[in-house]
Amino acid sequence: MKVTLFCKNAYAFGILKPLYDELEKKNHEVLWYVASKIYNKFPFKDSCNYTKSIQDIHEFSSDIIFVPGNEVPYYLRGLKVQVFHGLAGEKKGHFRIRKYFDLYLTQGPFFTKRFKQLASKYKDFDVIETGWPKLDKLFSENKKLADYKKQILKDKGVKRIILYAPTFSPSLTSAIDIKTELFKIANNNNLLYIKFHDLMNKEIIYEYKKIASFHKNVEIIEDKNIINYLILADILISDTSSVVYEFLLLNKPVITYKSKSRNIYWQNINNKEKLISSLNEIIKNDTWAKDRQWIIDNYHPYTDGQSAKRMITAVSSYLNNHEIPLERKISWFRKNKIIKVFGKVK
Fold it and tell me: Among positive and negative, which fits the CA dihedral 107, 197, 5, 345?
């Protein structure tokens, strides 16, 4: 198969890398599309075939295009497959059908049920449940990092690792409100990792780095992929971010500040001054295990680290019974929007 991995935003790199690894093992021909705005951030330049040109993808003539974002040019040849960029099903737009995709590969029953309902309504796409490739490493690397974590705790002389990973959205982020309280967490017992979203306001990041320089047990994580830090952390502090669901799948406690999620399956606070007391309470008595299990069962029950492999098997089987689309039939309005974003091809 000829496969394009379509990256419009930098978060797509970590989502698509497990797919790339599996495709390489099976000797499929792979082309990465990396949008111009993130071209310099692409971390796999030395090991793969990549381009920032939509014309190159057109000439490549894909059989399959995997997309973690919301848009893909309708005029490109290939089965256009939505693989999603997060697990936050309550966020605006997660279940919006934009008409650009032939196939949706869902993460778990919660998402599959809703998208199958939408498939019955629109009748122009299909749905297969596979799990989410970004999380393969979350499970496959879990045991491998155990000794590394012990060494970190020993070297730092602390008992646990706390990860703070807020959303970037100005209306949802906790980064401004809880900044003062957050740094109080870093003490002789706690190592505080702070991991910002790629799109976080640069001024906020600068302020945090300046304060962090005065704290020995605070580290600002520059790595684009958060997976290793989810594995290393004992507790996550966040807000209305999809990273909450990724962390819950490891069956570890979460504290959020003013989460807008419709259904809360973790500790949520609305008063920033309760952050420290909530943390101390959850350390002594974690009462959220049953609620986390519901998330695991419904959002992503696949813990074998094989979701990328399932995706490739799913699309291969799908193409045995369906022709490869030469283009996607969409409205004039959506065609015009795509052309404004990606341009035309010759």
Answer: positive
Instruction: Give pTM, 2 decimals.
Output: 0.85
- Is 87 a residue whose pLDDT tops 90? no
Counting the structural domains of the chain, the total is: 2
Q: Are residues 280 and 156 in the same domain?
A: yes
Q: Which amino acid is at 288?
A: W
Q: Which residue has the higher pLDDT, 198 or 117?
A: 117
pLDDT digit string (tens) for 108-143? 999 999 999 999 999 999 999 999 999 999 998 888
Q: Which residue has the tokens 């596979």?
A: 130
Verify that 253 and 219 share a domain, yes or no.
Answer: yes
Q: Are 126 and 104 in contact (CB under 8 A)?
A: yes
Structure tokens at 294: 């519901």
Joined tokens for residue 329: 């039939």
Q: Read off the pLDDT of residues 30-45 as tens digits, 9 standing for 90 and up.
A: 999 999 999 999 999 9
Looking up residue 253, the CATH number of its domain turns out to be: 3.40.50.12580
- Residue 96: what pLDDT? 87
- Among residues 252, 269, 315, the alpha carbon closest in space to that of 79 is found at 315
Q: Give the dihedral sign, CA 22/23/27/30.
A: negative
Q: How far apart are CA 325 and CA 99, in angstroms?
A: 14
Domain residues for the domain of 266 are: 138-299
Q: Are residues 213 and 227 in the same domain?
A: yes
Question: Which domain CATH number covers 38?
Answer: 3.40.50
